[in-house]
Amino acid sequence: MTTLTTSARREDPPPGVPGAPDRGAPGAFAGAVAGEWTKLWSVRAPYLCLLAGLAITGVFTYYYASIARINEHPVQPVGNAAASSAVLVQFTVVVLATVAVTSEYATGSVRASLLSVPRRHRVHAAKALVAAVVAFVAGTTFAVVGTAVAWTGFGGRASFEAGPAALQVLAVGLYYALVAVLTVGVAFATRHPAGALSILATLLWALPSILLGLGGPALAVLNDQLPHGAGEHFMRPAADAPYGPVPAVLIVAAWAVAAHLIGLYVLRRRDA
User: Coil, strand or helix: which one is 221?
Assistant: First the structure.
């Protein structure tokens, strides 16, 4: 009996392979991240989302700048166009991060993922990290492209300073990264793309639109506590903003952390 047990232990698959025991090795999280990275780029959805985001950014920023030029708006930082495009482009990141989670539940492959990495918090954190990194790189790329496109559309009604423009590019990337973490948490909580997208569309677009459409100081204050409302305050800082960029980042981060914890709770309770 002892010989059989020893032999079975020697034949255990290595960490990272479905069915392998999780021994808590220092590289276990790195392996989970590598696995999530590979899975993300093994399907077409992320490529389509990123291409869509690039196209929407180009169209939106040129339209934004052209309207400012035609209506002779006051001169503004050229990066405002790319920051404003987040109201639409953020949903390409939302779809990307949603698919990264819900596609595994749809196909049943989540069972293999949880066998490979039994520590649920590692699976959850690895998906959130990969989605956030991809969203940050995509967001900064979109912002650079959008700024360049908008510069031609503004026709002289925009200002450009390297330092503030670079900060706006990084702010857009950070906002997209936090939205990706928020999305992963919601997707784990709902486990279904329709449910996750409905919640996120309401939170990031429909509810802010309703609050701003109805008007009034109380509703404006409420909108400033929502993810996109706060995000605008650090992507497009203004002198008359109710709070500065740092509190704005903390508000969006608080939403992302709350969603992450809820998603992790559901994952641990309901499992696969």
Answer: helix
In whole angstroms, give the CA distance from residue 259 to residue 255.
6
Q: Residue type at 103?
A: S
User: For the stretch 175-203, what's the b/e string if a residue is b when 16 or more beta carbons lie within 10 angstroms of its beta carbon?
Assistant: bbbbbbbbbbbbbbbbbebeebbebbeeb
Over range 74-78, report the average pLDDT.
94
* Triad 250, 256, 262: Cα angle to 5°: 135
| Token couple for 223 | 């909108």
Rounded to 5°, angle at Cα 33 from 125 and 145: 90
In sign, the C-alpha dihedral spanning 70, 71, 76, 80 is negative
The secondary element (H helix, E strand) that includes residue 261 is helix 245-270
Q: Which of 85, 82, 103 is nearest to 168 (CA)?
A: 82
Distances (CA, A) of 57 to 163, 190, 225, 251: 22, 29, 25, 25
> How far apart (Å, rounded) are the C-alpha atoms in residues 17 and 236?
45
pTM of the full structure = 0.88
Query: H or E element: which one contains 77?
Result: strand 76-77
pLDDT tens readout for residues 139-170: 999 999 999 999 999 998 999 999 999 999 99
**73-107 burial string, b = 16+ CB within 10 Å, else e?**
eeebbbbbbbbbbbbebbbbbbbbbbbbbbbbbee
d(CA 73, CA 114): 54
Query: What does 78-102 look like in DSSP terms, one character per residue?
Result: THHHHHHTHHHHHHHHHHHHHHHHH
* Amino acid, res. 167: L
